[in-house]
Write a structure and sequence with these properties.
It is built from four helices and two strands. It is mainly α. It has a two-stranded antiparallel sheet with strand order 1-2. The chain is flat and about 40 Å long.
């Protein structure tokens, strides 16, 4: 895991990196930010939520779930775990 999640892994950094405070176009982080901005524009997410930080947080959650899944020899239901944790994370940002 350590050798995969490293700045020397150019395919990973291109997929998830940030330059000058912006996510790289066509990266998973940029897509995440666009989707969250759309939800905010549609009044699903509160207007005071920092979408950029939320995108970073969700990425961290997913990486942690992947790490845990690897440590458990693929015995956990990773999709269920990610859904549960992200749902709980997002619950404080849902506009009522």
């Amino acid at each position: 895991m350590r050798s995969f999640y490293t700045t020397s892994n150019t395919s990973l950094s291109a997929y998830m990196c940030e330059q000058d405070g912006e996510f790289v176009d066509n990266s998973i982080m940029a897509r995440s930010e666009r989707e969250l901005l759309k939800a905010q524009d549609e009044k699903v997410i509160t207007s005071d939520a920092d979408i950029h930080v939320m995108s970073q947080d969700i990425c961290t959650i997913v990486k942690g779930c992947i790490f845990e899944w690897c440590l458990n020899s693929n015995k956990t239901d990773i999709e269920r775990t990610i859904r549960r944790i992200i749902r709980n994370y997002l619950s404080v940002y849902i506009a009522l």
